[in-house]
Sequence to fold (476 residues):
Amino acid sequence: MTNNTFRIAIAFSFLLASQHLLSAEASDAQPSVDASFGLASVVQQDGKIIAAGGAIIDRGSSFVKYSAFLLTRFNPDGSRDTGFGTDGIVTTRIELSASGNPLSFIGNSSIRALAVQQDGKIVAAGQTYYDGGKFGTQLTSLTLVRYEASGVLDSTFGRGGIVTTQFPGRTDGIFGVVVQKDGKLIAASNVYNSISEKGDISLLLARYNSDGSLDGSFGNGGVIQNPIFQQVRAMVVQADGKIIIAGNSEQESFPPAATHYMFALARYNSNGSIDRTFGRQGVVLTRIDEKYDNYWTSAYALALQSDGRIVAAGAAALKNSSQEEFAIVRYNTNGSLDAGFGQGGISLTSHIEFVGSGYSSYPQRIYSVSIQDNGKILAAGDSVFTKDGHTISLKYANLVRYNMDGSVDKTFGDIGVEGIMDKGSANSLSLQADGKIVVVGDYCPSYPMVSYDCSHLFVTRRQRDGAYDGWHFIYP
Fold:
């Protein structure tokens, strides 16, 4: 395994952003939720647990439905916090307008990231799709919603608690949000435009003031781009305020002409300038291995160890194949690979042994990663398997623990892997103060007959060693 870092020119390009809001619909009465999905979680300082994602709301007709931001909060013991929203649940519908003209709402509003401010206010970040007005074009707005601790929309933020930001290019919504020490918010996304050197995709960082307005002192009009990224999936902030972004990058080598997909990380100073002490001019590219040169080879999650080392987790996808393996890469604080971890800084895991002989792996991805107080690494994601080449497959939401050297910790769960849920995906994990593990994800009851019928948010908890804690929540 090698770490091939190609010569790159770090270029910054900027887009003008517009912020508009038509309306947000909220109700004291809990609406009828047809389906939901879980994508994010956070544990508050008081120990309460927030799980979030999206919901499909039924307005009384199968043809009249809309999607909304969804949050549900639990007390530390797992009981629903009835003082939050309506019986512990909050839904927020968002509609958009551009240049004062209403845009027809399409759907797929969802929360992908959460943050809790020092004052207890909750920041939910994600996406809202809307009609671009040309031949049914669907565009995505970066969407931030801030709530009071009780779940009520914060009227001091944006317009009625909501900020939406549209760009001339299509974005993928917000994948990470952090609160800086001064209360400003940084959101990470992708943007598709013709400016980036790869043709149409760049990292996009946007910083907002505490009132929801774009911070003009950050980048150009509050926005920074970096075209080295093909996709952006995670963000963390170090204790010194520096910002680390992770995803993947597409690079070409000559000769021979070949395309390589790599883990990509970049680090920025708190003011938005690139940190040139990190990697090569602020960027680190890690090629897992030549056989994993597939687009889906990417970091999807980040975590920081107490010693400052950086853990990036995701998938290593086999070239010309749909097969993938769990991938974890550990870096030193300067961005160099940590040679004491796995093989040259990289740990790859396939969980075929978890389901038995005769199976082959399809997508296996880590979506969330966290560090326990003993230094061991927890990773949550999903694994899909086929039996003897048939299309009928198994889909597991998995929780895996790694030792500090990158090996799978066989004392955790079943051979190092704890199967969280059959027919599910584990998308987020958080640690409680007592070390218990909270996992949030999707339950897909009709899988594999309907592959994408992941219509239920689930929350479950495990003991430190992976044993089932007895608490499990599925909604609706």
Observations:
- The mean pLDDT is 82.
- Residues 352-355 form the longest helix (4 residues).
- The longest strand covers residues 49-61.
